Hints:
Layout: H1 2-28, H2 33-36, H3 39-62, H4 69-75, H5 80-83, H6 87-100, H7 107-120, H8 122-129, H9 131-145, H10 152-164, H11 169-184, H12 191-207, E1 220-225, H13 232-245, E2 250-255, H14 262-273, E3 276-278, H15 286-300, E4 304-309, H16 317-333, E5 340-346, H17 351-363, E6 368-372, H18 382-390, E7 394-398, E8 406-408, H19 411-417
Parallel strand pairs: 1-4, 1-5, 2-3, 2-4, 5-6, 6-7
Antiparallel strand pairs: 7-8
Amino acid sequence: MAFFKRFKKKKAQQEQEGQSQAQDQAVSEPEAVSQDEENPPVAEAAVAEAKDVEQADTPATAEPGETKQPQEEEAAPQDLETQAEPVPESEPKAELEAEQEPEPESEPEDEQTSEQEPKRGLWGRLGQRLKKTKDKIGGSIDRITLGKKIDDEVLDDLEEVLVTADLGVHTSLKLIEQLRGKVARKELDDTEALKKALAQGIAEVLTEVPPTPERDNNPHVIMVVGVNGVGKTTSIGKLANYFKSQGRSVLLAAGDTFRAAANEQLTIWSERVGCDIVGGQEGADPSAVAFDAVEAALNRGRDLVLIDTAGRLHTKVNLMEELKKIHRVLGKKLPGAPHEVILVVDATTGQNALQQAKLFNQVVPLTGLVLTKLDGTAKGGVVVAISGEMNLPICFVGLGEGMEDLRPFEAEGFAEAIF
């Protein structure tokens, strides 16, 4: 329809030109007025002709099967500009084709990536989820070494980077001394060599700790402790899911009898995982719950017992003493139990997690740690600090909210991931 609008506009311009010419002739030749007055009817005829063409176009547009011969016939007598005016009709078609062009779809690529994640392993994914820690350490190393030779001045700056990344003073000094020796032997020529040597040093710190105890007892009893809000009960549910996936029969003990709805929360996890649970009423003695859970595991032939305990501040002496009682009762019921005492710490708390580990270890002998929320912090260096200063293994790390996101810790993979 835009073509006919322009057609009418052109006819109107021709009409105005004809009227102006008529006025000029009327001034110079008065006797020609009668001839010029015949021009308006000619213009009206042109407008009527345009309307006829528009009406002729309407049925052609409504029926896709018909050809647009009336447009071609009407456009033929016009000048070159008029003949070229069907071009705008192709513009909507071009726009329609552009809209119909399929855009590249990224979803299949994402699905392919998710399928490849198990092949890459846990720490291939952790390289993405440790982005904050990676940027904190790796990015700072790039900044302090830019355009510089690796020397003592650079290592002094690197020491500050490691301390602020929560690797701890003790561990940071140990790593820097190792690097100074390599610099003296001229083994570090560039930034990449420095990163590689640092990753190797971190892996050594993480692997020098005692190994995780063999879980070959029947039943193997694991007591889980930690402060409020670190994700202790959720971690127990994920641990149960992991051990069951390894073919172990699991029994949960809802020993947190102080927090409201703690029993219900662990019951939901037991239903999701598909394992037994032994609970107690709110306010009951948690030592009694732990005792009953071990007895039930012995009677039912379960392989592993996970005992939840109430979250408590490590500064509350009376509550910490209660952990000693649970530990003693378990030993009386089953010699050697608990076989593991695992502390759950929130990695986002940084150096505070190290202080928690020290104080809990004074009350009950810790055998390992579970670090949660490692994917949401730039303080992932606390993993190295706890292992280096406490001489404790990191048993599991939490990398997300899913049931599969609590996995065994791998020292070499972690060291590679943060660089």
